[in-house]
Amino acid sequence: MSLLLRDGDWVTAGALADTLGVTPRSIRSYVTALNERVPTGVAVESGPHGYRAGADAGAAMRSVPTVTGTPRDRLHTLVRALLDAPDGIDVFATADALFVSPATLDADLARVRALLGGTQLTLERSASTARLRGTEAAQRRLLSTLAHDEMEAGSFDLAALRRTLGTESVGAAAFGPFKADLVAQLGELGYFVNEIGIADVLMHIAIAIDRVSQDRPLAATEQPASEAQTEVAGMLAELVARDLDVVLGAGDLQHLATLVLTRVVAPGAGDAGRRDSTRAALDPAVEHAVRETVERAAAEFLVDIAHEDFVLRLALHVQNLRLRAREQAWSRNPLTRSLKSTYPMIFEVAVFIASELAERLEIPLMDDEIAYIAMHVGGRLERSRRGDQLLTATIVCPGYYELHELLRSSVDRSLGQAIEVVGVETRVDPDWDTIGTDLVLTTIDPVASGERFVRIQPFLTDADIERVQSAAGRIRRARRLARLRTELERYFDASAFVHGLDASGAPEAVIRRLGDLLITQGVVDEAYVERALQREELSSTAFTDALAVPHAIGMTATRTAIAIGIADPSIPWGDRRVQVVALVAFSESDREAFQTVFEQFVEVFNERESAQRIVRRATDFSGFLDELVAVIDG
């Protein structure tokens, strides 16, 4: 359902099956199950072109099945039972309650053990009793992990949270007003609230209330509270008592106040008049590390991000991030997947920054935290590259009073963010061949023809605006892909092409296999392959539902080359499944080409139909290259 909602168009059963790593028959079963959730509506439409989200798709997503017997349901129920029973659970009684055999429950307990990795919790088994051992803070982190697993794309979903905590936990009627009051109070205290981050705070508050109601409070720490922590803790105590009728202890209030303060940003960080006060709140070591890392990233990727405002905002974010790391309270980001697939270059810059900061400040960084850094990078680049995206245009409008001036004014007002008018022809017989702008907006029929000529009315209409925007979009895409085709034809080689990747051991085995091909060509060495594996550990390079682009940080290849692997069916890669793996090795001399190749290559495979066409027909190297070029040429 998430895939269908994200695509918004028809998707074949085969394409869905490839993405999920199942058979088309399973897809049909899933569609039936989803439609059963809304008996009077349509969750998924079926047709000759496949499936697409129906009018009641949202209701199906929010609906809880009446029969909860899936492995994940059992796992969550089992973990919740273990968390609620300090003395442990009886394995046989729990198996009976879940309507499964003791052997099935033993298998589920093994999955619980796998889930506990890195949580500082252990699962003990003595005869028929199983119990969790670990601190209350560690148990709450496990609860937050389960809650995030229930919540689609990391967004705050109270219904999903109640499935994790139990239906007797805090309800929407109380929690809705509480959130509004919390945001209002933080605003009155002078904080700008990050709505993405505050969702995590709400989840932790709900978990705290649930645990306190079971007489499982957090112990207070000996670390003295700051003035800001004391202020926020007092506000939280009052709000929770008033809106949710729960009294939190000192340990819970201190913990929640820390979470709030690491997810809100004091206003004025980008105001030149307040830079000194912002810097005063920063740890000099953090600011220094961020400044040097940003300068290195700007030089490595040739991007315009080394600005004072950007450094200060990012340093403030990283300082909060370091505090979250100490609490092991990572902030989820619902935009992670879309940022990675839509803005791969921006995400790659963020990965570079995260890698440097992780080493300098000893902060382990997850994908969601890297996505927050990507949002900072994207915001900075958006400011600096808006002008670069403008297409030039000439208006052809035969002179009649001030008609051409009125038309130019209308174009500037309606299309000024997409095109820049650099000339106006008022002759009825202009020399069309001498007009060299990207677009020609003409009120008369042009003698010449082509994509760049757009017929418009003397008085600009909504239809005219749409035609111009559409033409501008086609020209931009054609230019991007033309540059990509020119670059790619230099980088591919038949000896670095593999059809039929093995799913076992992916992605490490695939990276090593493709890396060996480039080593044989003398393009890279073993060290490069090892660095590509290290880069993969930082953040999965599966940028779309079809394509992974593993690579090492640093452009150290003797020449730029790409090794291609085709998998049919798809293979697991991080939290996705992919069918095309492109191991990319860039040389220092091709630094400027990196952005073009990286972004546009991902763009091609971000279109599901194009990806499927290439995979289905690329049984050998020549077929792959032919199909790739055909897709690029449209």
Describe this structure in words.
By secondary structure, this protein is α/β, with parallel strands linked by helices. It has 6 domains: 2-62, Orthogonal Bundle (Arc Repressor Mutant, subunit A), CATH 1.10.10; 71-134, Winged helix-like DNA-binding domain superfamily/Winged helix DNA-binding domain (Arc Repressor Mutant, subunit A, Orthogonal Bundle), CATH 1.10.10.10; 158-265; 272-384, PTS-regulatory domain, PRD (Orthogonal Bundle); 388-464, Rossmann fold (3-Layer(aba) Sandwich); 492-632, Mannitol-specific EII, Chain A, CATH 3.40.930. The protein contains 26 helices and 15 strands. The strands form 5 sheets. Strands 9-8-10-11 form a 4-stranded parallel beta sheet, with helices on one face. α8 crosses α11 (195-213), α10 (172-188) runs antiparallel to α12 (227-244) and α25 (608-617) packs antiparallel against α26. The longest helix is centred in the C-terminal third of the chain and has 30 residues, at 462-491. The protein is globular, with a radius of gyration of 28 Å. The two termini are 29 Å apart. Keywords: Repeat. InterPro entries: BglG_antiterminators, PRD, PRD_sf, PTrfase/Anion_transptr, PTS_EIIA_type-2_dom, WH-like_DNA-bd_sf.
